[in-house]
Amino acid sequence: MNFKDNKAIYLQIADRIGDQILSGALTAEGKVPSVRELAAEIEVNANTVARTYDHLQQNGIIYTKRGLGYFVSPDAKEKIVATRRDQLMQGEMDYFLGQLKAVGITPDELQRLYSDYLAK
Amino acid sequence: MFTINQLSFGYNKRTGNLFQDFSLELNAGNVYGLLGKNGAGKSTLIYLMTGLLTPKSGNVTMDGINVRRRLPQTLNDLFLVPEEFELPNLPLKQYVAINSQFYPRFSMEDMQRYLDIFEMGNDLNVKLNNLSMGQKKKLFMAFAFATNTRALIMDEPTNGLDIPGKSQFRKLIGTGMTDDKMILISTHQVRDINSVLDHVVIIDQNKVLLNTSIADVMSRLAFRSLRQGDKPIFTQQSAMGDVVVVPAQDGEETAIDLEMLFNATIQSPESINQLFTASK
Predict the structure, then answer these.
(1) How far is A46 from chain B (nearest CA, A)?
(2) B39 and B169 fall within a common domain
(3) A contacts of B218 (beta carbons < 8 Å)
(4) How many independent structural domains does chain B possess?
């Protein structure tokens, strides 16, 4: 795993787990690797992974079964989609729309571009 | 686990003391990175911590016992991987059989697992003289982790490792670290160990300039590109524009760049000290 600049590592790991849930590599009610397994696999400190799991647990993406480890929440996928949608709207979308305005792309043009993209 | 009390030490009168009333505490459950410039005294500190050098005054204790007494109960719970070392010309298996006797919690199962991580687990009869320096280092580190001593101290562990070796080393730490252990890594190769540390200790000219957890660094400092209105503590030019170390604002959390943290601390020790002693 390569660490992108800027984003805290524990959040990058959370994103990675989110990606795996969205892609179906991790399924609802499926077991998540233990803290130490994942730490060894992606070569990070176990406390960093523990922090990631705390974060995911607080957001309802995963939950613990006493003595058995961490599992994917039944509604994890919906929660991840909702969170990412919020992040996109608040962050990158704002920048993207600013760029569109700067080069003078009209709403009609944008609509056509997006429709074409979806049709691909 | 380790307490360094008012330690003073120098190699000779002419050059004076390298450490004067130096104090530091290291606790179980942490992977420490010990960073300092050449000649800052990192290796000396390690030798003082492992009872190989005698302080002029002050002492180092492990679980309350002076390490300089070199008692069996200290030495069988402490392992040092120096930057350079010699291994006897024995078959690997025999080397392990002889040396594991000194370590009551040694596990052959762990040894095999760690050798496998380094892709060296196939031939336990190989003669140690037939190994390259890098392979010897891998073997020695696998042994060090397999002794399961609670304290593991490594001086420049990634020096001499090949490219996969550095990643294998990080896996070794991920697998071998437990809450009752303390690992101290002294290094200049901060990129090799960036992701495995819990805690960073920066020393310079007999002073501890920074001694804090990675979580604390993340809550107080941000490492990112320059924005308008920033008052950077440290600025580094790059092809992509200026990257800066600034006080973290509004709960922003960025990945830590240890190299920049080190440079910022050496260049502006007062600003760093002020920021880290302030209550949040």
Answers:
(1) 6
(2) yes
(3) 8
(4) 2
Note down the domain range covering B271. 214-277
Within a 13 Å sphere around the CA of A111, how many CA atoms are in the beta-carbon half?
Answer: 3
Same domain assignment for residues B188 and B92: yes
Q: Give me the pLDDT at residue A3, please.
A: 47
Residues of chain B contacting residue A6, judged by C-beta atoms under 8 Å apart: 223-224, 254-255
Mean pLDDT calculated for residue range B270-278: 91
B58 shares its domain with B179: yes
**Sequence-separated (6 or more) residues with CB below 8 Å from residue A2:** none
Q: Tell which residue, B38, B175, B197, B40, has the closest CA to residue B22.
A: B40
Listed in order, strand segments (DSSP E) in chain A are 62-65, 69-72
Cα–Cα distance, B59 to B92 (Å, whole number): 36
Q: Is B242 on the interface with A (CB under 8 A)?
A: no
Q: Both B238 and B181 in a single domain?
A: no
- Reported as a single tens digit per residue, the pLDDT across B106-158 is 999 999 999 999 999 888 899 999 999 999 999 999 999 999 999 999 999 99
Burial of B83 (0-12, 13-18, 19+ CB in 10 A): middle
According to the model, what pLDDT value does residue B280 have? 63
Q: pLDDT (tens digit, 9 = 90+) per residue, A63-93? A: 999 889 999 999 999 999 998 998 888 878 8
